[in-house]
Structure formats: structure tokens, C-alpha cells
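Record type: monomer structure entry
Structure origin: computed from sequence
Chain ID: A
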Amino acid sequence: MAKIIKQIKFGKLKIGENEPAVIIAEIADSHNGSIKTAKKLVEEAKQAGADIAKFQLHLPDVEMVPDSIQMWDGPLYDILKRNLFTPKMHKEIMNYCEKLGIEYLCTPFCPAAVDVLNKLGVKAFKTGSGELTNLPMQRKLAKISAKTGKPMIISTGMSTWKEIAETVKIHKDEGSNFMLMNCTSEYPPKYEHINLGLIPKMREEFGVLTGQSDHTMDNYTAYAAIALGAKAVEKHFTLSRKQKGPDHFISLEPPMLKDLVSGIRKIEAALENGKIISKEEHVVRDWAFHSVVADRNIKAGEKITLDNVRPARPGRGIPAKYLDPLYSGKIIGKTVKRNLPKSAILQWSDLA
């Protein structure tokens, strides 16, 4: 089994095996090109409890061939141009995130965008699934990460295991600080295509922290990802699913994001290691467990046999397990010191 990277530092956040999962509100282009809307989204993400507000930096004329990709909401080139945020606008949003106390993260879609973000002073990088096999870009990011310590979060949707392994090799060869995100690049995906089992598999085989970049329209698979060890969860985020745009309809609205955060924190609390009996369980244990009780009147000097005692609740006396052959030698044949009425709960002090 590969050795697990224990922790990644991202600004004020710590991502690690023994840390709470970080929750990423993927704002992407849900701002519709408006700084005012972007700031409102950051505010709502922070209020819901998200740790990270994530955006996308597009340079349409560099990252793609114009008029070559048709999305469900129209030509991708036109969508990107319509919602375009300049580097100056990204810097303003980055500063706003800093002011509100939520980490800013951004996805570059070409090497030139990597340079822009690095110059802006981002604390980390996130690549989408479409960039997993862009190995020159991955190596560029890996070198930056190794040099600066800035972590890399890498999504793995629509890729083969071999392709994931190739990208992992580049980052390990360059010494970058990275984690992998399980992802299914469908919008929305079928549940049978989510492959949550890859979260522990990637962690074990590649020795890296893993998370879930989730495009479902609810929170169920994100919750399950936490139970499987995901240390980051990413969900698209919008102010309203009724807005026009490619991602709004699969995005969480503010109340749903708040439920996601609350649910994840509750699940993490429920996943604490070690079997303990809580204070509250002790109250139930007192009446729900079984004791050895007199099945008839037993006189002082009489011996305990399986015929004059039985197991019954509550559990405030000699535990009922002492009537089983595994332990019965410690009680059967012992003499009682006092008269015991029927249904008396036997105590060790009752035995000679």
C-alpha cells in the first residue's frame, strides 16, 4: 500500500487525513460576468459554511478553437465570451474572498491562464477533468507546485486509469503537492456512473489524498464520499437554478449548500474512530441490559443453579452473561448470603 500524504496546506486551510473535509463552492461562471453577482455568490458560500469559493479563468481565444464546441446552452466560445472575467476582475474577487475569510481558488484552462493566476498570487491551483490529459500543462503546474509549495487539486472525470496514472507520475516526478478528485463528467451524472469506490482506490494505489467533485443535483453522493474518506467535496453553486447558463441547473442553491455543509460535519462527527460507551448510552445500558435475577424465592444458604435464576432486565446487577457456560463457573454453585425474593436482582455481594 502506498504511503498517504498526511496534509496539504492551502492558505489557512489544512487538508489531511485527520482534518475535516474542505467544501468547495464551484461558482465557475455562475456570476454571468457580473462582479456584483460574483461577490453575492462568495457571500452566500461563506454564510453556508463553504471553505473555498472556486472560479474559472478562461482565455477563449487561447484555450479553444472558436465555433468548434456546441454546448447544451449554445456555442461554448460565445458562452465564455459572454461571462468573461478579466484578470483584474479575478484579482478583485480574490481580495473580496480574503476580506470575507473564505479561500479563493480558480481553474485555468490553458498554460497562459496558469501564468495569469500565478502572477495574481493564487494560493493553490485546481484543474478540471478536461485538463487531466494535457500533460504539458500538468507538468507546468507540477513544477510551480514543487517550487512554491502551492497545492494542486486535480479532477479525474472522463479519464482512464492509465491516464490518471500518467498525470500522477508527472506530479510525483516533479515533486508537486497534489490531491485527486473523483469525478464523473456528466451533467447531471447517472448514479451508477459515479464510481465512489475510486475514492479509497486512488488513495490506496497512488498514496494521495482524494476527494469528490460532484455534479449530481442533490447531496447524497457527496455524503457517501465523506464516509469513504473524501477530504474535499466540490459542488457547483448558484444563486438560482432558474438562471440561464450551462451550469445553473445542476448547481446547489444557497439552502442546499448549507445542508451539504451541515450534513458533512454531522457525518464526520459520526465517523469518529474507536468504540466507546457514551454518557447517554450508559443511561440506556442501565435499563436495557440484562442481569441475573431470582426466578423464585431463594433462601439464605441455598446454592445458585440454572433452575432458580434467570436473565432479565434491568442491567443493574450481576451481568446475565454469567449464566452462559463461558462464565457460569463463577456463579453457579455459589451460596447466597441472604433471603432473595422472586425477581430480586442479584449483586456480587449477595454471594458467599
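Annotation 1: The chain has a mean pLDDT of 94.
Annotation 2: The longest strand covers residues 22-28.
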